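Worked problem 6 (solution included).
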Amino acid sequence: MKEKIIYIKQNWRNEPSLPLFVATFLYTVAFIFTLIIDFLSKDFRTPQWSFVVYGSLLSAYVFSKEFGDRWILKIKWIPRKGDLFVYIWIGLSFVMYLVEYLSCGIYQTPPMVGNIATTVICLYVFSRISKYFYNRRNPYNRIYEDFVDKDSYLGPSILFPK
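Solution. The predicted structure is:
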């Protein structure tokens, strides 16, 4: 964690998507916290507009990272764990669904959780497809070797065969 904080301090001005990454990370932590409180208290106090702000912030970060950093500036940054981010949202929504089902509706999933999980998945798929095309276009400048070469990954290789 300490290395990442040092990296952020050193590259704050060099990597355009870094401030959006920090803002998105902080908003995500706060947003997940409020959704869990809403779920456990059975009182949906998180405003609906917060989902729109969160989706916009997340979209701005992904598009800034993909087009600004990767395609235009060709910045090689520290790999971030986008997979983990998706797993957290999918896991959170699944646990909330399961608890709601097993409690026979005593606990209810906040209505925006499904929308958020769908938005996160769509942005993640967009990012992976962008990464795939970037790596195909620049085969000697691959940032993530494991993306294209994995036989187990069935994403863009099905949509865009060689």
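Discussion: Residues 2-159 form one domain.
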